[in-house]
Amino acid sequence: MNQVHGDEVLLISKISEERPTCDALLTIVSGIALAVRVADCIPLLLSSKQVVAAVHVGRAGLVNNIALITLGRMRQLGATSIHAILGPSICGKCYEVPQDLADEIVALKPASRCSTRSGTPSLDLPAGLIVDLKSQGVTYEASTICTFEDEKYFSYRRGDKSERFAGMITL
């Protein structure tokens, strides 16, 4: 998908070479692979017996509740028991932000409050996302790999401006 840090969720019903503009894809069709590309944001994969989703969760997506919107759509399509996998992303100790931005995000997502190793304001996006998932009764697995620290992964903040890695899921 052409990811734009928004809250658009699209249902995919057939294989296509077109890349829709959105931040979450879901499908109820077996055999269609969904992908999310990231380089510090969280690649979130959601699965149930009835529907699967690939979600791009960055700072804006967390605030825009892209994961919660996607979960709602999944339930509308019949999903009951949903499991989440949070792939590698930048950790709270490395995601430094200005104090005013940290205050703005933490006001909406308190669990995302963090500090860098040197004590400057930062955000822990996975922690904020996990609170949202748990509030919806979603089970989860979360990678502890930091894309900024581990050079095997692309990191926008480390200088990989055009490179990405992908999370993929199929029903």
Provide structural commentary.
This protein has 171 residues and is of the alpha+beta class. Helix content is 22%, strand content 26%. Strands 1-2-5-4-6-9 form a six-stranded mixed sheet. A hairpin with a 4-residue loop joins strand 4 and strand 5 (52-57). The chain is globular, with a radius of gyration of 15 Å.
Order of helices and strands: EEEEEHHEHEEHEE
CATH architecture: 4-Layer Sandwich
Beta-strand content estimate: 25-35%
| CATH-defined superfamily | CNF1/YfiH-like putative cysteine hydrolases
Total tally of structural domains: 1
What's the mean pLDDT score?
94
User: Terminal Cα separation, in Å?
Assistant: 18 Å
**What is the overall number of helices?**
4
Contiguous runs where pLDDT drops below 50 for at least 5 residues: none
Strands, total number:
10
Strands of the largest sheet, in order across it? 1-2-5-4-6-9
Largest sheet: 6 strands, mixed
Question: Radius of gyration from the CA trace?
Answer: 15 Å
Structural class: alpha+beta
CATH class reads: Alpha Beta
Ordered list of secondary-structure elements with their pairings:
Blueprint: E1 9-11, E2 24-27, E3 33-38, E4 42-47, E5 52-57, H1 59-63, H2 66-76, E6 83-86, H3 99-108, E7 113-115, E8 121-123, H4 125-135, E9 139-142, E10 165-170
Keywords:
171 residues; CNF1/YfiH-like putative cysteine hydrolases; 6-stranded mixed sheet
What would a concise description of this structure say?
The protein is an alpha+beta fold.
